[in-house]
Request: fold
Amino acid sequence: MGRLVADDVFRRLCRARDVMHAQHAERLTLAGLAREAGVSRYHFLRLFRDAFGATPHEYLTRVRLGRAKQLLAGDNHSVTGVCLDVGFSSLGSFSTLFAERVGCPPSAWRRHFWQVAWSPEGVLPLTIPWCFATGYGRVP
Reply:
């Protein structure tokens, strides 16, 4: 259990966290986020970790990967486009990190949402694993 953070400091940390959510695709620096919170960068690092249970870098990575999962579930972006849109500059690093944290590569994540099955009504998008759907008879 981390230490408690004072109310006014917590509000300023939340302001910096909100910047991370709003500008996740941009190059954010520790100094800039600390300036947003009104504290030194070393103090910001300690306070942020105490308040949110992760360093600013870890938190920003989670935000970016969450947004990447949302974009990959759609069909408007390529994996490379998603990588760049969420703030990563290297496709290889993005794919490796995504696979480590999510459990499958970005292309497999996309396939999970876009698998289709034939039914009497036509093609149905599935949000359940294909093996489960085919193993138990007719796809709903």
The helical segments are 7-22, 30-37, 41-52, 56-73, 79-85, 91-102, 106-114, 130-135. The chain is about 65% helix and 5% strand. The chain has a mean pLDDT of 83.
